[in-house]
Amino acid sequence: MIEVEIKVSLENKDIEKIIADLKDIGFKKSGIKEQIDVYYNGIDRDFRETDEALRIRRSANLNEDLSVINENTYVTYKGKKLDKISKTRVEHETAVEDIDTMDNIFKSLGFKSVEPVRKVRKLLRKVIGATEDEYIEASIDKVDNVGQYLELEITVESFEQKDEALGKLFSVLEEIGIDKNNLELKSYLELRDEKLGIN
């Protein structure tokens, strides 16, 4: 699978207006999540230099009052970005039952973890195809020690579908009045480490 994604900062933006604007063009609320990501660096290469990512994510579905409904854990590998204008990557992800055991496996193999990145994510979704499986996901993210961002994402089967998917994401930005020249290509981990002066 290829995750076609763009991200923009929402600094000095009215978050409720952005959500209202997304709803005006057909997005519907699809949930709130708290996500805590533990990233690992490679054994034979530095993922910061190769632009790869390996993480364990604890993802909790939340009620409106931010109380936890349920939790899931995933292991995700992301390859390097496929272009210079978006965060599009090949992604492999699978659910795991035991976060501590998975962490111990990675560490036993020599992977080094970094301080977790935590965010609360308000999700909206717009169906764009014949089935519910074809959609654009909008995430309004509040990231600890980073700030607030909007991510737009479509998952496609092949690289040939990437440009069409990117066009759809850029159209959403235009419709809600956000300049596509303000794209952020860095990960939340990179942004957090920059802000806190972590090497």
Summary?
With 199 residues, the protein is of the alpha+beta class.
**Uncertain stretches of 5 or more adjacent residues:** none
Proportion of strand residues? 35-45%
How many domains? 1
Report the top-level CATH class.
Answer: Mainly Beta
Please summarize the sheet with the most strands.
8 strands, antiparallel, barrel
Total strands: the figure is: 9
Helix content: 10-25%
Euclidean distance between termini CA atoms:
31 Å
The CATH topology: Hypothetical Protein Pfu-838710-001
**Helix/strand order, N-terminal first:** EHEHEEEHEEEEHH
Large-scale geometry: globular
Number of helices in the DSSP assignment? 5
Q: Which strand order do you get reading across the main beta sheet?
A: 1-5-4-3-2-7-8-9
The secondary-structure class comes to: alpha+beta
Q: What is the average per-residue confidence, as pLDDT, rounded to a whole number?
A: 95
Radius of gyration: 17 Å
> So, CATH architecture?
Beta Barrel
CATH superfamily (homologous) name: Hypothetical Protein Pfu-838710-001
